[in-house]
Design goal:
It is a single chain. The protein is of the alpha/beta class and about 270 residues long. Helix content is about 40%, strand content about 15%. An 8-stranded parallel beta barrel has the order 1-2-3-4-5-6-7-8, surrounded by 7 helices. Helix 6 links the parallel strand 4 and strand 5. The longest helix has 18 residues. The mean pLDDT is about 95.
C-alpha cells in the first residue's frame, strides 16, 4: 500500500470557497524552482510568476522589458517546484495590448509551455475583449486594478491610485465588470484601504491586495522584498520578515575568509 500522502491542490474554485468562508488567501511571487519549492512546502496558497521578475531577477527599472519567452522560462521553472499552490502567470507588457487574438495566443503559449494554472492581466474595460477571448478558450484569468505597473509611463509615478472620485468610480465599475466577464480573482494594488474594502464587498470573487489595506480577501507581496533580499525598496505596505541581504552577505564573507585562510576545505571535507 502506498504511504504517499495526497496533497490537496489549491484551485480557482477553492479560492472562491475561501472567500465565502472568510479564510484569507496568502500569495507570494516566485520565479525559480528552488524558491517555489520552499514557498509551496510552507503552505502558500497562490504563487504569482510576476513580471516583477523584470526588476528582481533581471535588474530592470520597470516591468516593461520582460518578454513572453522570459515569463515562460520563469513559469516552467516554478511549476516544477510546486505540488500544492495555484500558479498564476503575468501576461507581460506587449503580449496582450495590441488585440485580443494576440492576447489569446500569448495566454495559450503560457498554459501549453509552462503547465501553469492561470494568467493575470492588468486593466479593466480596456482589456475586456482580450479577457473574454482568453476565458472562452478555458484559461482562467486573474484581474489587476489600481496601480498597474505596466502603465508606469502613462501615470509617471508609483504613488497611490484612485484617490480621486472619478478614478475610484472607474475602479469600482471595472471590478464588477471583471467579475461579470468571468475572472476568478482580482489584485488591487496601492489604493486607499476604504475603497479596496468596498470593492471586496461588492464582488463574489476573491480580492487580493498589495498596499490595499486589510479589508480584502488576501494579500500578495514580492518574495524578494518580504525576505529582505532587496533592501532599497521600502514602501509603506511592505513588512520584512527576514534580512536575507545581510545574512547572505555575512555567509559569503565567512566563506571567503575560510577559503583565503585555508580553513576550507578541511580534511573531513576532502576525499
Amino acid at each position: 500500500m502506498s504511504t504517499h500522502k495526497e496533497v490537496k491542490k489549491v484551485t480557482t474554485h477553492s479560492l472562491i470557497e475561501m472567500k465565502k468562508n472568510g479564510i484569507k488567501i496568502s500569495m507570494l511571487t516566485a520565479y525559480d524552482y528552488s524558491m517555489a519549492r520552499i514557498l509551496d512546502a510552507a503552505g502558500i496558497d497562490v504563487l504569482l510568476v510576476g513580471d516583477s521578475a523584470s526588476n528582481v531577477m533581471a535588474g530592470h527599472e520597470t516591468t516593461l522589458p520582460i518578454t513572453l519567452d522570459n515569463m515562460i522560462y520563469h513559469a516552467s521553472s516554478v511549476i516544477r517546484g510546486v505540488q500544492r499552490s495555484l500558479v498564476v502567470v503575468d501576461l507581460p507588457f506587449g503580449s496582450y495590448q495590441a488585440n485580443s487574438s494576440e492576447a489569446l495566443r500569448s495566454a495559450i503559449r503560457i498554459m501549453k509551455e509552462t503547465g501553469a494554472h492561470a494568467v493575470k492581466m492588468e486593466g479593466g474595460s480596456e482589456v475586456s475583449e482580450s479577457i473574454i477571448r482568453i476565458l472562452t478558450a478555458g484559461i482562467p484569468v486573474m484581474g489587476h486594478l489600481g496601480l498597474t505597473p505596466q502603465s508606469i509611463y502613462k501615470f509617471g509615478t508609483y504613488t497611490v491610485r484612485a484617490t480621486e472620485d472619478e478614478e475610484a468610480e472607474k475602479l469600482k465599475k471595472d471590478a464588477l465588470l471583471l467579475e461579470e466577464l468571468g475572472c476568478f480573482a482580482l489584485v488591487l494594488e496601492k489604493i486607499p484601504a476604504k475603497l479596496a474594502t468596498a470593492v471586496a464587498k461588492s464582488v463574489q470573487i476573491p480580492v487580493i491586495g498589495i498596499g490595499a489595506g486589510g479589508g480584502v480577501d488576501g494579500q500578495v507581496l514580492v518574495t524578494h522584498d518580504m525576505m529582505g533580499i532587496n533592501f532599497e525598496f521600502k514602501p509603506r505596505f511592505l513588512r520584512r520578515y527576514l534580512n536575507l541581504h545581510e545574512e547572505m552577505g555575512n555567509a559569503v564573507k565567512a566563506y571567503i575568509k575560510d577559503v583565503k585562510s585555508g580553513d576550507f576545505p578541511s580534511d573531513k571535507e576532502s576525499y
